[in-house]
Specification:
About 80% of the residues lie in helices and about 0% in strands. It contains 13 helices and no strands. It has helices at about 20-45, 55-85, 90-115, 120-145, 150-180, 190-220, 230-245, 255-280, 290-315, 325-360, 375-380, 380-405, 410-449. The longest helix is centred in the C-terminal third of the chain and has 41 residues, at about 410-449. The radius of gyration is 22 Å and the shape is globular. It comes from Duganella qianjiadongensis. This is Permease.
Length: about 450
Amino acid sequence: MSGASVPRRVLSFDSNPPYTLPLRFFFSAPLFVLLACALLLWQGDAALASRWSPYTLALTHLLVLGCISMTMLGALMQMLPVVAGISLPHVLRIGPLVHAGLCGGTLLLAAAFCWQQPWLYIAAGLSLLATLLLFIGACTVGLWQQPDSGAAEVVAAIRQSLAALLITLALGALLAASLVWPGSIGLPLPLLTDLHAMWGLLGWVGLLVMGIAWQVVPMFMVTEPYPPRARSRVSTTLFLLLCAVSMSSTLQGAGKDVHLLALGLLVLGYGGFASLTLYLLARRKRPSADTTTLYWRTAMGALLLAGILAVLRQLASHDKLSVLPVAPTELAIGALLLTGVALCTINGMLYKIVPFLTWYHLQETRQQGASVPNVNQIIAPQQGRRQYYLHCSAVVLLVAACYAPALSRPAAGLMALASLALCRNLLTAVTLYRRVRRTALIGQATEVI
């Protein structure tokens, strides 16, 4: 059966969570980007001096935990009931707890990196462990249910991404323990750090983006569905390759070749996913690209570029490409994956999810005679496009700043402007929601009188 013959699934809104539940996560995300920008403006060159710099680590975790993971947790609470018919247990109680714990834990961890206080590491570790384990536990209970027909591939990728999050959390706990009690782990810290970053960015973030793509790219961007073989095999194969890279990372001699082969296949796998997505987006049925489509094209292009840089970095580390500096290239790969892939994907999806949720939750006001605008009118397209250009300019400057640190403050300023523009655009949708609801309630009260 070809990808074109796969029927589009009907979504289920029977267990749709309240409007405010995912919104608290979505609105917190750009605020943490602003904090990361403030840190970069404060420290300047020092924040991009090395991937081992405390300020670089604080910057990274503000983005990964405070923005990327924040949005993804909120999106999962929204998507699992709608896409797969899976309800998380006690989500109305768990949601606010997870949000508060993730906000507090991220701030404590960033402070711990900046000020190097052991008690901050302990407080941050306990907060993040409790929060993320609570969320993973709730998802495990929910995912034990049988998903709706046709959602198996999406659910499989989500399960694998949550397993990757658990591995990332375990590695992060080991690293935090080594910082609080030096020498207590007995494992090479650079290797643990590399594995922690790999499972976090390629496992937790990458596999979840992939699972979301199976559903939202055809639905929101009006493309043909992904081929069935890609949906059923790619995420599982990549998860197994992540395991192979991890297990072979300490091998020497001939085992080193196995490690390099697994790394190469991992790069090819993610590159294949990016290429397939770009191919589907190029053949989409709508002639003009909206903000979400532009963001996804940029994200997939950034993923391909990060893969190319990873190969060049590997060659440079073996003195086969001495013109490429290794340390700045490592930073550039991280910047591309964080701001070029993850943040572009998140920004693009927010321009679809937030207007759609606003429109959906306003449908009941039609009975009171309220006028509800079309989904595409809730956030003005030109506002989204302007914010897209700001963000892309910031990504380009940030990647360039990895090689020329003097550009770090201009990059931070542009990224801050893009985040403020995103906040304003999302606030437009919420303001519209409140205004229409208020108008409907006034009209209903007038009819009663």
